[in-house]
Amino acid sequence: MNRIIFALGVCTASDAIEVLLINSLSSSPTFQATFNRESTEFSDTSSFTFFGMFLGGLTASLLNARIGLRNLLLASLSVTFVLSLLTNLASDIALYNYIRFIIGISIGSTIPPTFTLAALHSEAEERGRNNTLVAWFWMVGSIYISVAAYCMFEFSDANWRIFNVTCSLPSGFAIFLVYNYVGEPKGTKGGEIGLLDHVKSMRNLYNNVEQRRRTLLLQLCWFTLSFSTFSLLSVITPLFSEVGIESEYLSTVIFSSAALAGNVGSYLCIDNVERRKLLGVSVVCASLSAFLFAFFANETNSSKAWVIVFAACLFQISDTAAWNVVDIVSSEQFIERRSKATGFGICSATGRLGAFAAQFVNGGLIDGGVTKLLIIDGVVLLICGIGAVGLDERCSFLDEDEGEDDDEAEEHSEHKTLMDFIE
């Protein structure tokens, strides 16, 4: 079981690296020179990536229904790995943005099967902690890319293409791990399911009154949390530079490392505290941190730099804890086994739509100062807290076996054998 969690965690880390890539590259002189842009002028590139992730989240459930969770994850990781390497050949921003858009689709198709596989491979009493461990690896990915940027751009001013190859390696490693150590859970193997069946599965999420309420509240949480998170994460390095911090890459490393506290705290609390309360407290703390960040953002005095970094770290801690809770709750809120990936995919797509919208806000506000941007992030997080209040507590729908017959169990015996070997 530990190998499965590790493999899925590396998938999460590779996603984090791809999502945060433009933030690190935008401050690279060689990257700016290649595309003749300043560090704050790459919001459109981030928008292409997040819009691709939005489409990927929508199509993930359809692809899962046809090819299965494991095959979908392998295919998505493979597309991400190959195209990430191909971006090194881009010499104009239009081609680069197009490739990043396709990469965004593959990233969006990776996230739903990753957490659904973690939930389905876990016993009920271990599900919360296992999903939290998988979510931990987002921190690993963010530290990986921030340390790589610090070493390559702060000290050696390396070419951005070398950095890009370095950031592509975790996707290749994730492919190896998933192929060898992750099997397809019973009852989720793809079959000949058409578009109409897929649409019906999506409609089922909104037909029942209670299921519709849960789905819409989850979508609200995903949209608002993604908006505020990626509004800040996609520009954190140039933002540190804008507010007068001299070593923006080192500050980004500190900021990324702060996620450890959020991961540890959520891991210890996730099965001992009501999840909606934990989510509510986390987003409120993140909102207050954003307001504190905004208060000191216009201070260019170097003596205030530590306060700005401290406020950013508080945001990272609280935001990380909130995401851990949302990932777990999202894997538990859907009744039918086949609807889990569908529901998670819809929620993930809604989140990417929020991240996509955030890039337009960034593009319009960051050149005129970061205070307004941070205040908007704080307000949006408070809206997320309102949605968290209405969520159900500890849904147990994943524990229902859905009545699988012996023929279906025999059909998936090859995966059971693999899982027995791994565990």
TrEMBL record:
Record-level Gene Ontology MF annotations: transmembrane transporter activity
Q: Which Pfam families does the UniProt record give?
A: MFS_1 (PF07690)
> Which regions span the lipid bilayer?
47-65, 72-91, 97-120, 132-150, 162-182, 216-237, 249-270, 277-297, 303-329, 341-361, 373-391
Q: Where is the composition biased (Acidic residues)?
A: 400-411
Q: Does the keyword rRNA-binding apply?
A: no
This protein's major location comes to membrane
GO CC terms: membrane
All copies of the Major facilitator superfamily (MFS) profile domain together span 4-396
Q: How does it sit in the membrane?
A: Multi-pass membrane protein
Tell where it localizes: Membrane
The Basic and acidic residues compositionally biased stretches are: 412-423
Q: Where is this region: Disordered?
A: 400-423
Q: Which InterPro entries match?
A: MFS (IPR011701), MFS_dom (IPR020846), MFS_trans_sf (IPR036259)
Q: Which domain of life is it from?
A: Eukaryota
Record keywords, A-Z: Membrane, Transmembrane, Transmembrane helix, Transport
> What protein does this entry describe?
Major facilitator superfamily (MFS) profile domain-containing protein
